[in-house]
Design brief:
Length: about 325
């Protein structure tokens, strides 16, 4: 399987200004050294609490936000520092679907205009061709041809998300980031939209980066899952390993919080206590140690790096160090 996207040691620090002179007094390390790749045609789920840096990560990959450090490679092209102009061909290939279709869809534009806009901006398709493609896309996402003249407020949340998906697919991208794309929807509607996205993936050969705060949402659609904590990956592994044999205490805690999870945790249920520490002042060593029932001396002193445990399963935790 070919690699479509590579992220290398990606970082985003937001300066904190303080005092009357508004000098930089510190940094919020929203993303602090994230490395992974995504294979052509797969879905990588990225899970974490709000504040874990997962949306910042998604925006950096699409170059909606400049990384502080690190690299983004799309089909082996380093796109990290491309100018607006040089980025254009890549923008067509990489799209994003956001959480709230009400906020992300211009309410004054009809469905037709919403789907047509990216074609007008990014391609030189003629009008006839565009209309044909709009019909094709509406059918693909399960909307009616007669819906094209309606406006976003005339649709339910799930239908609006279908419009967002049609818009994202307007120019036939290869790679789509879904950022909490179903989080605002009822559970039954979530399942419908997730099924639609799976079908579209198979049909069109799409690759997904599926960002969510909810491990149960990414479960069915993902091939692999990465778990983020305070701007870093705690664990990344094939789906079955994450859900059946999670190694990181944080992943274990997230899973025990899901009601009827089928995880075979031999250990006591790990309960997640306390709040996410501030990313402007993260704990030394392992950022999870303030909430970790297994924390020991080394955890305060040394930051754990991802280590390969076999079969594509990586974990950043001192419990798995050799000299333990
Ligand atoms: Fe817990 Fe230590 Fe592992 Fe961090 S490194 S998750 S504190 S055991
Ligand atoms: Mg898949």
């Amino acid at each position: 399987q070919e690699t479509i996207l590579k992220v290398e040691d990606l970082k985003k620090y937001f300066p904190i200004k303080g005092g009357i002179l508004k000098r930089t007094v510190g940094n919020v390390k929203a993303v602090d050294g994230v490395t992974f790749d995504v294979k052509q045609g797969e879905t990588l789920g990225i899970v974490g609490e709000s504040g874990s840096g997962k949306s910042t990560l998604g925006r950096m990959i699409l170059r909606l936000l400049e990384p502080t450090e690190g690299k983004v490679l799309f089909e082996d092209h380093d796109i990290t520092h491309l100018s607006h102009k040089k980025m254009r061909p890549f923008r067509k290939e990489m799209q994003i679907v956001f959480q709230d279709p009400f906020a992300s869809l211009n309410s004054k534009m009809s469905v037709e205009q919403l789907i047509e806009e990216p074609m007008i901006i990014q391609t030189d398709m003629g009008k006839k061709e565009r209309k044909k493609r709009i019909n094709y896309l509406l059918e693909k996402v399960g909307l009616r041809a007669s819906d094209r003249l309606k406006y976003p407020h005339e649709f339910s949340g799930g239908q609006r998300q279908r419009i967002s998906i049609a818009r994202a697919l307007a120019n036939n991208p290869k790679f789509v980031i879904a950022d909490e794309a179903v989080s605002a929807l009822d559970v039954s509607i979530q399942a419908q939209v997730l099924n639609l996205m799976s079908d579209l993936q198979e049909d069109l050969g799409l690759t997904y980066l599926f960002i969510s705060h909810d491990l149960s949402v990414v479960k069915h659609i993902s091939d692999r899952v990465g778990v983020m904590y305070l701007g870093r990956l705690a664990e990344i592994a094939p789906k079955h390993a994450i859900y059946k044999e999670p190694l990181h205490p944080y992943t274990q805690a997230l899973l025990s919080a899901i009601p009827d999870t089928d995880v075979d945790l031999e250990k006591e249920k790990v309960k997640l206590e306390g709040d996410l520490p501030s990313p402007s002042n993260p704990p030394s060593g392992c950022a999870f140690r303030t909430r970790c029932p297994m924390a020991h001396d080394k955890c305060a002193e040394v930051r754990p790096e991802l280590q390969h445990m076999g079969d594509g399963h990586y974990v950043a935790c001192h419990l798995y160090d050799e000299e333990q």
